[in-house]
Amino acid sequence: MNNLFRLIAIIIFTVIITTTGITTSFAQETKTQEEKIPTEEINITANKVKTPQEQTGSSVTVITRKQIETEKKPLVKDYLTEVPGVFINSNGPAGQLTTVSIRGAQSEQTLVLIDGIPVNDPASPGRGFDFSSLPADNVERIEVLRGAQSTVYGSNAMGGVINIITRSGKPSNKQEVKTQLGGETGGYESNRYNLSVTGNMPNIGFSAGVAGTGSGVLSAASPKYGNSEPDPYRNTEIYGNIKYEPTERLKFNIGYRNDNQASDLDSGGGPMADAAGYWTKTKRDVFSGGISYALILKKWDLSVNYSNAVTDRTVYGNPWNPPGFDERYKGTTQNLTVQNTITAGNHKILAGYVNETEKAFFTDYDSTTFTPFISPEQSATMNSFYVQDNFDVCKKLFVSAGFRNDSHSIAGSRTTWRATANYHISESFFVKGSYGTGFKAPTLFQLYSSYGNPNLKPELSKSWDAGVEYLSKDKKHNLSFVWFNNKFDELIDYDLATSTYYNISKASTYGLEIAGKTKLHPRVTAGASYTWMKTRDDRTGLELLRRPSNKFALNCKYELPKEKGSVFAEMVSTGERKDMDFSTVPSTRVTLPGYTVFNAAASYRINKNLEAYVRGDNIFNEKYETVWGYSYPGASLSGGIRINF
Questions:
Q1: Are 287 and 275 within 8 A, CB to CB?
Q2: pLDDT in tens, 351-392
Q3: Are the beta carbons of 87 and 100 closer than 8 angstroms?
Q4: Which of 188, 391, 538, 598 is deepest in the core (most CB within 10 A)?
Q5: Section 267-290 average pLDDT
Q6: For residues 15 and 2, what is the distance between their CA atoms, to the nearest angstrom?
Q7: Which of the four pLDDT bands, split at 50, 70 and 90, describes residue 20?
Q8: Distances from the Cα of 130 to the Cαs of 7, 108, 116, in angstroms?
Q9: Residue 173's pLDDT band (boundaries 50, 70, 90)?
């Protein structure tokens, strides 16, 4: 009942502001001022080539730069909560381990890219990615691709792909340099800053900057269980990239980013979990470089890209380890991709080769023998070949189909395939669907750590989805329904009886995603999404942990006249889900209650160079947990400025 009152309150709040703006300016509106929904109708991630959204058979959601600037959220993970089929789990507030699950898949089965570069950590147990403090200041757009995508993206893409595309300059005849300086402070001693420079000039585009986030007074383990020790965190990001295009055919790019994060930790969730002096330091370095040459202008492009991503993580003061013993996990991923993109009539064909080498070493404590375990550097190599054809039939049926072979130096060879289709019943109605197989090679930790098993086989998946979509002729109104189904086999799990990893699990998930967006007025946009999902551990018959059956999101945005600013409000409601209470021996299965969170933001452009804003997070102070025993921030208010020159 309280959630119903809160929903009514936020709708009234939004309607009052919206109506006020409409009333004061409606007489001045003309059709020439009307703005279509900023859908950014091209996506890159679905087929590895630019594809209009209405021609894509896969399920993909694009979060645009305009959304980021309107909603003013500090971290990438904050925007992923809006995406249908995506669920976020955090071991406490910002700075604590945060994972993302797509359509019920394990978080480690999601491939995370930054500008197309794989950044999953090969030294972590499952080769996952920690979203705990990745800032959004330098992000141009986020593309979330759902379903098995191993055909074009290889291992780790069984559940889907999240591609974070950063801001960059573009070679242009219009020479300009833009600088942005921003700062924010708010509740729980949170702070945020960024400085960026972007340049466009003939033959050269560049960008560079620094961004930081942090907070200081919240405990990772929930205070409701008696925990009170603050667990602050900080993160600093430095980045830069250059694009050089000496001719229309020849293009070069080079980029570098560095993230440094330090976070205090607790010894777990639940009672008596405070742990003074327990913290972790993580450094991520990503270097990339590439060259693209049009062998036949507009018909055949050859690109060669290389990247080197290093994640170096040290854990200090773990209360479960002997005093003075620090854990270290360092993983490196080197990736070389050669891709041919050939246009032949209505066909766009991709043919590529990927060589990927992972290296890792671990210094951890073996809880079964109570002795330190120091692994020499281990490595694995994957050689992959893929082919995909994207084509249309009579401009009504848009199809992609392809296959890939991956040869892993330890786990052997696997072939995956995928096919998608989007058929235009009319100018506004489409039916679409996809079917794909996926695989995930065992991680170096699962193979060679103190719990490792060198005989592990790859995890496997089959997934399909089908749906219908409506897009009005003026592109102001959009509504889609998608049914999805996933089967996972040979899942790698930790066997408590033997303290070793084995291929012992199977799982299945299925559900419905509904998403819509509408332009209520030239300056008012509303959106909503709903996900209904069922999951099953096929070995035990139980629901999978931390996967809610329901998630509902609602938002509304009002833009002030003359681009003076905006008002944004949203509600995200997540249903109950299962988890484990590890404070008992043996651990017990529990149900975490559902929760509803309301957020809002407002900005005002004082002049063409200066913007001020305020943001309210969890404004009704909802108490909830996404992982049992860990806290989540209550109500907070933040304010900041942005200076552009």
A1: no
A2: 999 999 999 998 887 767 777 888 889 999 999 999 999 999
A3: yes
A4: 598
A5: 94
A6: 20
A7: very low
A8: 32, 10, 17
A9: confident
The pLDDT value recorded for residue 163 is 95
Burial class (CB in 10 A: 0-12, 13-18, 19+), 335: buried
Residues 337 and 384: beta-carbon distance below 8 Å? no
| Per-residue pLDDT reduced to its tens digit, 469-515 | 999 998 899 999 999 999 999 999 988 888 899 998 899 999 999 99
- In whole angstroms, give the CA distance from residue 620 to residue 158: 37
Read off the tokens for 412.
Answer: 């052997």
Phi-psi region of 306 (alpha: psi -120 to 50; beta: other; left: phi over 0): beta
pTM of the full predicted structure?
Answer: 0.92
**What is 358-416 written as a DSSP string?**
EEEEEEEEETTTTEEEEPPPEEEEEEEEEEEEEEEETTTEEEEEEEEEEEETTTEEEEE
Structure tokens at 577: 């889900």
Nearest-angstrom CA–CA distance, 402 and 417? 6
Rounded distance between C-alpha atoms, residue 543 and residue 592, angstroms: 13
Write out the DSSP string of 526-594. Answer: EEEEEEEEEEEETTT-PPPTT--SEEEEEEEEEEPGGG-EEEEEEEEEE--EEEEETTSSS-EEEEEPP
Residues contacting 599, CB < 8 A, separation 6+: 71, 73, 569, 570, 572, 615, 616, 617, 618, 619
Q: Which of 412, 405, 408 is nearest to 382 (CA)?
A: 408
**Cβ contacts of 450 within 8 Å, gap of 6 or more:** 364, 366, 368, 369, 373, 375
- CA–CA gap between residue 157 and residue 145 (Å, rounded): 10
Q: Six-digit token pair at 261?
A: 């994060």
The rounded radius of gyration (Å) of the Cα atoms in the chain is: 24
- Three-class SS string for 468-532? EEEECCCCCEEEEEEEEEEEEEEEEEEECCCCEEEEEEEEEEEEEEEEEEEEEECCEEEEEEEEE
**Tokens 């809880």 identify what position?**
367
What is the C-alpha separation between 356 and 17, in angstroms, rounded?
A: 53
- Measured at the CA of 56, the angle between CA 512 and CA 41, to 5 degrees, comes to 105
Strand pairing partners for 262? 234, 281
Tokens of 641: 């400025």
The answer to whether residues 566 and 560 touch, using CB atoms and an 8 Å cutoff, is: yes
DSSP state of 628: T
Give which of 497, 379, 408, 493 is closest to 446, Cα–Cα.
493
- Alpha-carbon span 628 to 587, nearest angstrom: 12
Question: End-to-end distance of the chain based on CA atoms, in angstroms?
Answer: 48
Residue 87, Cβ density class (10 Å: 0-12 exposed, 13-18 middle, ≥19 buried): buried
**Quick count: other Cβ atoms within 10 Å of Cβ 298?**
9
**CA distances, 588 to each of 380, 420, 579, 622, 624 (Å):** 37, 42, 9, 25, 19
Cα separation, 219 vs 217, whole angstroms: 7
Contact 125, 463 (CB under 8 A): no
Output the six-digit token pair for 389. Answer: 């054809």
Confidence grade of residue 16 (pLDDT, cut at 50, 70, 90):
very low
